[in-house]
Each structure stands twice: as structure tokens, then as C-alpha cells.
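Hypothesis: this fold can be encoded by more than one sequence.
Test: take the C-alpha cells below, design a sequence, compare later.
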């Protein structure tokens, strides 16, 4: 058994830093909020650096008896997760402000969730998959219900917990079936069984289906999406910002690794499932968003819609499909974080956060910079050229066509046209509707810098990243094939 602790240095930094921050919080009380906030940010920055420069090429193989891997695929996921967590923590510090319910435990909960997500993208065994996923989920349930006196937050946490527990049970049942019929929990071992068996048998197929169903809940894919709009709306906006970025990356990359590494030889068995889920997510996410009046609910359906496009690339399989998934998640994370940063920094005349789409009327008149940034993010999420959000969609469609899934790719592309309406509706409200209330922009310089940087990345200027990011995504994809 290989014990290479240098390969898991990012996780070790977070794990050993967490008790220190918790002790600080318990001894200093509410006064420690700033300390734990910026202490967590410092730990995440250190973990990001460790992931980028501290992993040796020899660490890419299975470690700790095949439980984990520090390959380029895992490093790619960790960097996206850590950066998303940093942005979410910084945004929350100002949004909560002097809220009496905001305590020093908030960033520590995000830290614990981040450790779970790092394990998720590094796992090469069904056991570590489940441990990482549950560590992330348990912290997420608490974060969703973080505002104890807010009925919506309590409801969001309860719904998330109940449905999450059900999904975890489904996933665990699928894992037990796969173990029972393959005799192993290792991704490599399962792949070897699939490769050496012409007829998978009913038991293995049931295990495959239940495992994918459990993972579909975690990525908010139809028909296991029902928790997403309610949780996104009810949770505090900084928490929603976190949910829409880091956990989404972790869950998608985990699903991709399971499908391509563990179940790769059985692509004929799971490809049809992924294709159905992809189209269902694209069209339901597009159509259900039409009547939404709350921008957080609209962005929830947007996330469901975008997950459908990600699954188009996954259904294609192979290195091209895998690299398109990784490329898409990087740009999607930037677009989503940017959109939520604009929303959570807008307040009405009473200094209350705004959530209704109607509150954005005439934003271009009072806050032209914010209206322009949000328009860029909306058009980019819709995949309208020449904005950079068009390129990831083109990559997943191209991967599907090259894999011989032409009809599937055409249907998915039509779904992109259908979904463009509600993104354009936001822009129309900001630029063409008469202003009804004065909105204030309560944003710190750091958050403003994030918004500006993200807007530049998803603008046409972002096309300079196609080559470097594409090479990195292709290298990371090759690690799981």
C-alpha cells in the first residue's frame, strides 16, 4: 500500500487548519468571525497552491490502497472548488454584515464541505466516494438552514436534508449492489469486471442505475432536481452562491469519474441513461424557468439546464467528451459566481437584499456597470456568441456529434435556443423597463474586482483562454481514461 501524504497535502492543510479555527471560534465567540473568515481564506489559498505545485507526477496513481488519486483530473477539480469556496466566503462576510446570526462557524462549515468535495474528486473507490460526498452534504444541510430565525432558510435546510438522505440511501444501495455483484469497490476493479463480462446481468445493471440516480440528485439533474429551486431560494444568498459553484463542480466531476473510469467499459449500459437525463434537464430547466419571479429560483433552473449540457459531453464519452465536461464546468463556475455576486450585492432603499426580478427594473439607469456585468453573465449563460459561454456549449455538441450522437446533439442544441428566453428577459427588465425603486450597490472593492475579472473572462476577451484551458482540460480528462 502506497502512503504518499505529499499527494494529499491540500486536504491535510484544510484538515489540520479546521480544528484551530474551531477552537478560536469557541474561545472568542462572535469576535472571531473575521479571524475564522480570513483564516479559512488563507487555508484555501494555501491548499490551492499546494494542489497546483505540490503534487509530484508519481502521485498520479492510486494511493492508500486504491482509495484516492492525485491525478490531473483531481487537481483540476480541487482548484475550481477551492477558488469557488474563497469567493463564496468573501462575499458572505459583507452580505451578513452585522447580522446577529452570523457567527465564526460559517466559514468553518464551508471548509468542512470543501474537504469533502476534495475527497469526492480524488476518490478512486466507492467507499471514499461516499465518505467525501456525505462530509460535504452534512455541512451543506447546516449551511442551507444557517439563518435560524428565517422560516425560508429552515424550510430549505429541512427539504435538503430529507431529500438528501433519500438520495444517499439510493446511492448507498447502488454501491452495495455493485460491490455484491463485482466483488470490489475499486473503480479499476469494477471496470475490469465490466470489461470481462459480455452480459452484465440484472444485479449489476440495477447497481449501475441506482448509483447514477444517487449521483443525479447531487448534480441537480432531472428527475432528481426537485430540491434545487426551493433550496436556492430559501438559503441565504451567499450560501446559494456556494451551492451553485463548488458542490456542483465536485458532483459533476465525481459523476464523470465514476462513468468514465469505473463504468467506462459498460458505456452502452449508462450512455442511454445519461442522454435521457441530459435532455430532460435541458428542457425542464428551460421551460420551468419561464414563469419564475425570483431570480434565485431562475438561476436554480438555469443550473439544471446547464447540467443538461454538461451531460451531453459526458454521454459522448472518450477523451473529447470528458475534456468538454471539464472545460464547461470551469466557464460555468465563472459565469455563475459572477451572476450571484451581482445579485447579492444589490439592495433596495431600505438596505434589504433584493431577490425579485421586478426589482431589477431600470437597473441600467441607476447602476449601469452592474447592469452591464449581469447582462454579460446572462448572455454568456445562454451561450450567445461571441461571449465565451458559447464555446463550452459548442465543445459538448461537437463531442456528441463526433461520437455519432447527431440527433441527440441537435435536440440538445434546440434546448439551448428555448432556454435563451429567460436570460434575455433579465436583460430586458434591466434596460427597457421603467425604474420603480432605487437600488444600492453595497459592494466591497474585492467583490467588485471579482465581478470585473469574471465579466472579462466570459466576454470575447476570454477566447484567449481556449488554448491553455483546453490543454489543461484534455490532460485532466486523459487521467480517467
Amino acid at each position: 500500500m502506497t502512503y504518499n501524504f505529499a499527494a494529499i497535502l491540500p486536504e491535510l492543510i484544510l484538515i489540520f487548519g479546521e480544528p484551530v479555527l474551531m477552537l478560536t471560534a469557541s474561545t472568542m465567540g462572535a469576535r472571531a468571525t473575521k479571524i475564522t473568515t480570513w483564516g479559512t481564506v488563507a487555508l484555501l489559498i494555501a491548499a490551492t497552491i499546494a494542489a497546483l505545485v505540490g503534487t509530484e507526477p508519481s502521485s498520479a496513481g492510486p494511493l492508500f490502497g486504491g482509495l484516492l488519486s492525485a491525478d490531473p483530473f483531481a487537481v483540476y477539480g480541487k482548484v475550481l472548488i477551492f477558488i469557488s469556496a474563497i469567493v463564496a466566503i468573501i462575499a458572505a462576510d459583507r452580505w451578513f454584515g452585522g447580522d446577529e446570526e452570523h457567527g465564526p462557524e460559517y466559514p468553518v462549515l464551508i471548509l468542512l464541505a470543501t474537504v469533502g468535495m476534495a475527497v469526492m474528486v480524488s476518490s478512486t473507490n466507492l467507499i471514499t466516494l461516499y465518505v467525501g460526498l456525505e462530509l460535504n452534504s452534512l455541512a451543506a444541510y447546516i449551511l442551507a438552514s444557517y439563518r435560524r430565525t428565517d422560516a425560508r432558510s429552515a424550510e430549505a435546510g429541512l427539504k435538503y436534508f430529507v431529500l438528501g438522505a433519500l438520495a444517499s440511501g439510493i446511492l448507498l444501495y447502488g454501491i452495495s449492489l455493485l460491490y455484491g455483484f463485482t466483488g470490489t469497490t475499486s473503480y479499476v476493479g469494477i471496470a475490469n469486471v465490466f470489461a470481462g463480462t459480455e452480459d452484465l446481468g440484472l444485479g449489476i445493471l440495477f447497481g449501475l442505475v441506482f448509483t447514477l440516480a444517487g449521483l443525479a440528485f447531487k448534480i441537480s439533474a432531472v428527475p432528481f432536481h426537485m430540491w434545487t429551486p426551493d433550496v436556492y431560494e430559501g438559503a441565504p444568498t451567499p450560501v446559494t452562491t456556494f451551492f451553485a459553484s463548488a458542490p456542483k463542480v465536485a458532483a459533476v466531476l465525481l459523476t464523470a469519474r465514476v462513468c468514465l473510469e469505473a463504468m467506462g467499459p459498460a458505456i452502452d449500459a449508462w450512455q442511454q441513461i445519461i442522454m435521457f437525463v441530459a435532455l430532460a434537464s435541458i428542457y425542464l430547466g428551460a421551460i420551468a424557468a419561464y414563469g419564475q419571479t425570483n431570480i434565485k429560483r431562475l438561476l436554480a433552473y438555469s443550473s439544471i439546464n446547464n447540467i443538461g449540457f454538461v451531460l451531453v459531453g459526458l454521454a459522448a464519452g472518450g477523451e473529447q467528451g470528458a475534456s468538454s465536461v471539464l472545460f464547461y464546468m470551469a466557464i460555468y463556475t465563472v459565469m455563475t459566481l459572477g451572476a450571484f455576486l451581482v445579485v447579492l450585492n444589490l439592495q433596495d432603499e431600505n438596505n434589504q437584499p433584493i431577490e425579485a426580478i421586478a426589482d431589477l427594473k431600470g437597473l441600467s439607469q441607476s447602476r449601469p456597470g452592474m447592469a452591464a456585468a449581469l447582462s454579460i453573465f446572462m448572455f454568456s449563460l445562454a451561450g450567445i456568441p461571441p461571449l465565451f459561454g458559447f464555446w463550452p456549449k459548442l465543445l459538448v455538441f461537437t463531442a456528441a456529434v463526433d461520437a455519432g450522437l447527431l440527433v441527440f446533439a441537435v435536440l440538445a442544441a434546440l434546448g439551448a435556443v428555448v432556454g435563451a428566453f429567460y436570460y434575455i428577459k433579465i436583460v430586458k427588465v434591466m434596460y427597457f423597463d421603467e425604474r420603480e425603486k432605487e437600488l444600492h450597490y453595497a459592494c466591497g472593492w474585492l467583490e467588485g474586482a471579482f465581478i470585473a475579472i469574471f465579466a472579462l473572462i466570459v466576454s470575447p476577451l476570454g477566447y484567449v483562454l481556449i488554448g491553455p484551458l483546453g490543454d489543461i482540460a484534455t490532460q485532466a480528462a486523459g487521467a480517467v481514461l
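The chain has a mean pLDDT of 87. The longest helix spans residues 151-182.
Hypothesis status: open.
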